[in-house]
Design goal:
Helices cover about 40% and strands about 15% of the residues. With about 375 residues, it is an alpha/beta fold. It folds into two domains: about 90 residues, Cupredoxins -  blue copper proteins (Immunoglobulin-like, Sandwich); about 210 residues, Orthogonal Bundle (Cytochrome Bc1 Complex, Chain D, domain 2).
């Protein structure tokens, strides 16, 4: 049988004994419906699988205009491909709270980064390499839209109880004469504290739980040093009411500890303070904080935190010396978290609250304590 006859036979079997005009009309309708179905499936696939489009982004020093886009808009679920090119100096690129990062981006080079925009909202993208005295201005917004859902309400404001004290001068009433050791403090704790507070700081009927970060987040190391000796703050502070307010929450425990205060040397107490501050963190979290500091803070504060980074020389105010025990040991984890989240008013320090997650903020503060309380934390 010839090919043409075979095709006519097959079509006849499919379409019955209709006339050729009717058959052609029916085939046309089937083709149109099939085309519509293919279009719908393709549209659905692009909605959920994402677009293949690439987005170009050019990095320039702030004096030359900064990012070529200050806002990038994509859809939730989209497969985003960014092609980032540097026109002048080495830059880096990251998107806060999404874990997206690429770099270094060398002058004249283009690097690509791909990710799925799985969360709706606005996320800050920024340069991660010190590129200019106005480097903190290298920021933009990635907007991830979700047309199928109502706009999510903004997250609740972080609870920063210390905001009113954020920029007050601080000066500890006592500082260590030698670098504290959390490992020595662990041995002292096991000998003198575990019977009340538990072997791992979990608390007993005789003493509270002190192993959680929240227990000490509003306490100053210098306060706890005083408490362990059973000694009230002397009337010599530059701001007596400041210290008296801070000590009020410790009065009852301080009276109890006065019974054992004579057993502690000053170094014993500082070693024990270092150990207490290590209970609420882990080595992994301290290591995360170290990486965040090196990437985002060391350019101004210096690798050792003493405020000698090259970027600090062009700031309106010299970056804080984070290794100064007189200053640092009179602060709290809650205060330093709030400071990083908000930034330094009039100092040139940018805000990080919309870039770091709460976990990253906690890790960074835990690492900051190693400058004044020793590297054994964590």
């Amino acid at each position: 049988m010839k090919t043409g006859s075979l095709l006519r036979a097959l079509l006849g079997a499919m379409l019955g004994e209709e006339s050729w005009p009717a058959r052609i009309a029916r085939l046309s309708a089937v083709a149109i419906i099939g085309g519509l179905l293919v279009a719908v499936v393709a549209a659905g696939g692009s909605r959920f699988a994402g677009s293949d489009r690439a987005i170009d982004l050019v990095a320039r020093q702030p004096a030359a205009g900064g990012w070529s886009r200050d806002r990038i808009v994509v859809n939730r679920g989209e497969h985003v491909r960014l092609r980032i090119r540097s026109e002048d100096v080495v830059h880096g690129f990251a998107i806060g709270r999404l874990g997206v990062e690429v770099g270094p981006i060398e002058p004249g080079k283009t690097v690509a980064v791909e990710f799925v925009a799985s969360q709706a909202g606005e996320f800050t993208f920024y340069c991660t390499a010190w590129c200019d005295p106005n480097h903190p201005r290298m920021r933009g917004i990635l907007e991830v839209r979700d047309s199928e859902r109502a706009a999510a309400p903004p997250p609740p404001a972080a609870r920063d109880a210390s905001l009113r004290d954020l920029d007050m001068p601080r000066e500890a009433l006592a500082i260590p004469s030698a670098r504290p050791s959390a490992s020595r403090g662990a041995a002292l704790y096991a000998e003198r504290c575990a019977s009340c507070h538990g072997v791992n700081g979990q608390g007993t009927s005789r003493g509270p739980d002190i192993a959680r970060r929240e227990t000490l987040e509003n306490q100053r190391p210098a306060q706890v040093f005083q408490m362990l000796g059973g000694i009230s703050a002397p009337e010599t502070s530059h701001d007596v009411s400041w210290h008296q307010r801070a000590l009020s929450s410790l009065r009852g425990r301080q009276l109890f500890h006065v019974q054992i205060g004579g057993q502690w040397s000053d170094q014993d107490r500082w070693d024990s303070v270092a150990y207490l501050w290590s209970l609420g963190t882990t080595q992994d979290r301290v290591d995360l904080g170290r990486r965040l500091f090196a990437k985002n803070c060391a350019a101004c504060h210096g690798e050792r935190g003493v405020g000698d980074g090259p970027g600090g020389r062009v700031q309106p105010k010299k970056p804080a010396n984070l290794s100064d025990p007189w200053r640092m040991l009179d602060g709290t984890s809650a205060l330093y978290t709030a400071k990083i989240r908000r930034g330094g008013m009039g100092t040139g320090m940018p805000y990080w609250g919309n870039i770091f997650t709460e976990e990253e903020l906690a890790a960074l503060v835990d690492y900051l304590w190693t400058f004044s309380l020793g590297g054994g934390i964590g």
